[in-house]
Amino acid sequence: MSEESATQIAKAAKAAFEASQLIDASERIKALHLIKSELEALQPEIQEANKVDLEAAQREVEAGRLSSSLVKRLDLFKGDKWDAMLQGVMDVAALPDPTGNVSYASELDDNLELYRVSCPIGVLLVIFEARPEVVVNIAALAIKSGNAAILKGGKESIRTTALLSQAIRTALSKTQLPHDYIQTIQTREEVSSLLSQDRYIDLVIPRGSNSLVRHIQNNTRIPVMGHADGLCTVFLDESADEAKAVRIVVDSKTDYPAACNAAETLLVHEKLLTTLWPNVAKALLEAGVLLLCDTPSLSVLQNLPVSVPNLSTRVRPSKPEDYSTEHLSLTLSVLTVPSLSAAIRYINAHSSHHTDAIVTESQANATQFCRGVDSAGTYVNASTRFADGFRYGFGTEVGISTGRIHARGPVGLEGLCTYKYIMRSKDDKGHIVAEFGSGEGKKKFKHEKISASRLPF
Amino acid sequence: MSEESATQIAKAAKAAFEASQLIDASERIKALHLIKSELEALQPEIQEANKVDLEAAQREVEAGRLSSSLVKRLDLFKGDKWDAMLQGVMDVAALPDPTGNVSYASELDDNLELYRVSCPIGVLLVIFEARPEVVVNIAALAIKSGNAAILKGGKESIRTTALLSQAIRTALSKTQLPHDYIQTIQTREEVSSLLSQDRYIDLVIPRGSNSLVRHIQNNTRIPVMGHADGLCTVFLDESADEAKAVRIVVDSKTDYPAACNAAETLLVHEKLLTTLWPNVAKALLEAGVLLLCDTPSLSVLQNLPVSVPNLSTRVRPSKPEDYSTEHLSLTLSVLTVPSLSAAIRYINAHSSHHTDAIVTESQANATQFCRGVDSAGTYVNASTRFADGFRYGFGTEVGISTGRIHARGPVGLEGLCTYKYIMRSKDDKGHIVAEFGSGEGKKKFKHEKISASRLPF
Fold it and tell me: Which major enzyme category is it (chains A, B) (predicted)?
């Protein structure tokens, strides 16, 4: 794509965003309902296109150019995926409007009101990989939050996403919303050109591998929201309860090892080495976890009875780099720490600031851990796997942010909004600054709180 | 400065930040009180250093290497500046703690609580120009909001800021806070090296010229918060009241023309050209404003009686570039527009998304303007000059953000904070994800709102 056509796409998106701001929010909900019906109407064609994408991908796998796990993610009609995607659009439609909410309201003077009101960010550029349903998910989130979006899916799902986009476009054309409100692009080259459009694009959301996220961060002046790593840690505090420790460590590691919120490192307080640790290790080994242990935690395991399953094959000494590796598999790095504060320091230095958990019976230690660990999520006696927009009650999410500017943690509709300040003078003469000040006859600001949850005009 | 010492400074700041998280917020307030006393104790030396800085700057002015307006800003003891600076520290100390506030709290399950709690961002790199008191202002804001900071002042105030920093450091050494909590650096080279420390520095806040802000944005991966331009617009709607129009336009332009929230462009609805516009123009001319007019607004003025002051000397035809120029002086670009929607489109395309105002008697038009104009502030019948942290009731500000990610508009303590999610299980067995789901015997999430404004543990 030429720089020129990238400018055109970005400019059209911004114009669509600006025009959409004057259209009632009910049109956005109408659009979501129409998207669902258009998708239903186009289902046979989409199913056929998805089949062709799958076959093409299968040939790539056979030629050794693609991983087979990717093919699974391409299949839009596996199990209840298609229905879940449609239901997701309805769920997003039913969520409360994230725009127009007042988070600060103050009467600055008689008849001078200030409101801070949530509003969309503007134009989103969303880049994701294999799963074609993400086009629909993200389009729904963008529309609901009032943002225009430019979407780029993986090249393996190109035929499927083309039809999904067509359904979205048809639906939009039946509303007052501009038809350029949601645009889809296909190639990496288009992405590169769009990354320079910081005049028109307000936020880039990459959903994919670490290398994709890093590449984007290094190649744009546009703010990027996305997590690069999910290096989550569970710390077994001196006062940890054994049953809780077993449950939480096993769940954090094994519930879904490929997820970014799965635990990759276990920190064991040294006082637990001969008490609680062997039983946690046994449970992990029974679950098929490979343990990469430091010397103290390893030597305890080497003295366990040989009847422990997997003991001889699934316990190995750790290497330094294991503690900065996102295993994304049934592998867990284990480190012994002498204290709570050492655990906090370790996590701040090594974790990816995603989600870290403590298992403890001490309220004081829980408080210290939650204050001291500088991550988007700090948990007490709960599995790191809870880090998720749905589980948090946000309905849905565009991802989990490990950045600390703007949205942090699971990003729902609220994370796709910013705010603006709206000021209204109801005074007969209007309000001017020159009347305020410290001199004689000058007015003072009132700064009186207004109770309002929505803008009154 | 070598890359190595930049790393050391940044690393020390991050370590100081992390250590500070475990220290009670009352220490931060104590630090602010101590900073005030240390500054008072060091006043004679600071006054002397400031004198030397001023003399050196004066010589630079005489040699034509420095603008004389800068010298004025260097003087820390002019009028009540010194006392105002000390009072500012006390004001910040007295503001409510922006950290530890709960903005979302939900019971996800029996005994499983989720809290979204405000917390500091981490390490701030703040770069500013001439005025030495900014060191103290920003240090106070950083300390109050719990952020570590690296501060870089202008080289012209180097002797003054060195002593101000010394007072801050001495004060910190009398608290439990780490003494590297606030660090000061002196040269542009140090800034360049620090801009690559994205591992340790979380946010860059440039306060200075547009070229400084742009340079920084182009040279770092660290998020940058700062406004580049203040191109504010006032639109006189068809239904504008004449007295309000005169007051608001004159105040927006003349109250403090060098400020970023001063109006630079006036949009006049074409129906007002022969009614309201001549009187607005007369008032502006009386105030000494230079009017750069498009053809319609110009020809009306050319037919005014010659008795209008400045008419022959202070009215000129505009050039296209005048509409994208931040005059920062008594100069105003004037453009005729055919409609409200044309005004909105013009502002979205030309303004810097800072603050834009409408003068109108129509509530419907006010609503359209506030919805349609994509700026941090949209005002109805109020001067653009109200865009200011103090006037908004934030106590103080670090600047006005025209970005739309994170903080927007005047940035007070809240804008220096992010949040983290804290989860606590009070269940006897702790909470794991595997128990939740749609299958038989699986738990469902409750997502029941908890009413809490501060973290209960």
Answer: oxidoreductase
